[in-house]
């Protein structure tokens, strides 16, 4: 199994559609009904979170590539139109021809996400304005918070800080146990997934994940249908835990669920 960086560097592609936190097994189960055929490979992500993915995957210069970026601005990403930095390790302006900020004007402030409709609109614009460039489009989905639940679950900025103690605790106690104990002690749920799990359980989280996967694949199909002569790949930045051994999300140890991601070479019907 090749790692994703090798495939990006050795495969002939025009448009790379990158879905956030997309597992190989869930993609394999649902993509054919929406996208039809294609050559599907299992590849290995080199990181457990998005910024690490940028750092580990794009080592060289991609001066023929425009990156459509969907993440919020943080203290590490000051002005995404000029520089996209991960600490001092990754400066996107030194790797890509142009960075398109899809987030700032389009994200939902109440729920902390960007709808795939808006990302797709920015992608179409970037493709039109840069006809001689390859395009990478990073979709926020299927990362939580899920579009499917934005009407019933409120955004929560009370995300746990992963102190050394919290990291050690995580190795021995699952998210489900931590969330249950906190709930019994009447502490606020630590983050959006905890809220969702306490309200709907593991199956509720999986439902949100699947529904957002179906949603974003339909937007990917719009790009695929609009450019029948372009070579299009669908892949991911990393995988996701969905309740295995009581654990959720990504980050931390790169286990099989985080490493295994899809690489689909789109074939038209």
CATH superfamily: Alkaline Phosphatase, subunit A
What is the top-level CATH class?
Alpha Beta
Biggest β-sheet strands, sense, barrel? 7 strands, mixed
Write down how many β-strands occur, each being a DSSP E stretch of 2 or more residues: 11
CATH topology descriptor: Alkaline Phosphatase, subunit A
Tell me the count of domains. 1
Please give the count of helices.
Answer: 8
How far do the termini sit from each other?
A: 27 Å
Determine the strand fraction and express it as a percent band. Answer: 15-25%
Q: What structural class is derived from the secondary structure elements?
A: alpha/beta
Radius of gyration: 18 Å
Morphology: globular
Q: Give me the side-by-side strand order of the main sheet.
A: 2-11-8-1-7-3-6
CATH architecture grouping:
3-Layer(aba) Sandwich
* Unreliable runs: 73-88
Structure description:
The protein is an alpha/beta fold and 269 residues long. It has a single domain (4-144, 214-266), classed as 3-Layer(aba) Sandwich (Alkaline Phosphatase, subunit A), CATH 3.40.720.10. Helix content is 37%, strand content 19%. It is built from eight helices and eleven strands. It has helices at 4-10, 24-35, 50-57, 116-129, 164-172, 175-184, 192-226, 256-259, and strands at 15-19, 38-44, 62-69, 85-86, 90-91, 96-101, 134-139, 232-236, 241-242, 248-249, 260-266. The strands form three sheets. The chain has a seven-stranded mixed beta sheet with strand order 2-11-8-1-7-3-6. The radius of gyration is 18 Å and the shape is globular. The two termini are 27 Å apart. Residues 73-88 have low confidence and may be disordered.
């Amino acid at each position: 199994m090749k790692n994703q960086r090798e495939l990006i560097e050795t495969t002939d592609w025009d448009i790379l559609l990158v879905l956030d936190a997309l597992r190989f097994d869930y993609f394999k189960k649902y993509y054919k009904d929406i996208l039809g055929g294609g050559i599907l490979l299992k590849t290995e992500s080199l990181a457990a979170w998005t910024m690490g993915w940028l750092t580990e995957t794009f080592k060289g210069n991609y001066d023929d590539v425009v990156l459509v970026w969907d993440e919020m601005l943080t203290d590490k990403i000051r002005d995404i139109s000029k520089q996209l930095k991960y600490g001092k390790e990754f400066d996107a302006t030194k790797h890509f021809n142009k960075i398109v900020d899809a987030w700032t004007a389009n994200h939902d402030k109440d729920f902390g996400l960007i709808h795939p409709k808006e990302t797709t609109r920015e992608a179409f614009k970037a493709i039109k304005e840069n006809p001689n460039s390859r395009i990478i489009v990073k979709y926020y989905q299927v990362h939580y918070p899920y579009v499917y639940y934005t009407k019933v679950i409120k955004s929560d900025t009370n995300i746990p800080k992963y102190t050394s103690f919290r990291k050690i605790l995580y190795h021995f106690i699952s998210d489900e146990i931590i969330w249950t104990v906190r709930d019994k002690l009447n502490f606020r749920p630590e983050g959006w997934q905890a809220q969702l799990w306490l309200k709907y359980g593991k199956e509720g989280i999986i439902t949100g994940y699947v529904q957002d996967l179906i949603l974003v694949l339909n937007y990917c199909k719009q790009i695929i249908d609009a450019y029948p002569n372009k070579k299009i790949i669908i892949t991911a930045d990393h995988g996701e835990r969905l309740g295995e051994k009581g654990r959720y999300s990504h980050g931390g140890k790169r286990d099989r669920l985080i490493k295994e991601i899809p690489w689909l070479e789109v074939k038209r019907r």
